[in-house]
Amino acid sequence: MYSAIFKKLIREAKKSYYSNLVKISTNSVKTIWNIVKNNTGKIQTSDKTSKIKLETHNTKDSKEIERACNNFLISIIESLNSNHANLNMAIQLLKE
Question: Fewest CB atoms within 10 Å of the CB: 1, 20, 40, 64?
């Protein structure tokens, strides 16, 4: 008995969820096809590995790409922090 009620509740929740997705989408036909693909397991996934050029070589290794991006972002933050420190020093000198 409870499993029938639960299944009905799940079915109604899915129906409501997908109805809402179609309602709020700007391209309802595409949204409907994406829903169908998701529920039938026919989503095409891209396993194309990105390739980037580092200072010394090109790489497709995801860990190496991750490290390079991380190092790049850290260097930007360090640069901004040092510029900000210089700005604070300049403001202090102006106040004196």
Answer: 1
The answer on 7 and 36 residing in a single domain is yes
CA distance 25 to 3: 33
Domain identity same for 58 and 79: yes
pLDDT tens track for 44-96: 666 666 788 888 888 888 888 888 888 888 888 777 766 666 666 766 777 76
Q: For tokens 């009620």, what's the residue?
A: 5
pTM of the complete model? 0.42
Angle among Cα 82, 87, 92 to the nearest 5 degrees reads: 125
In a domain, 45, yes or no: no
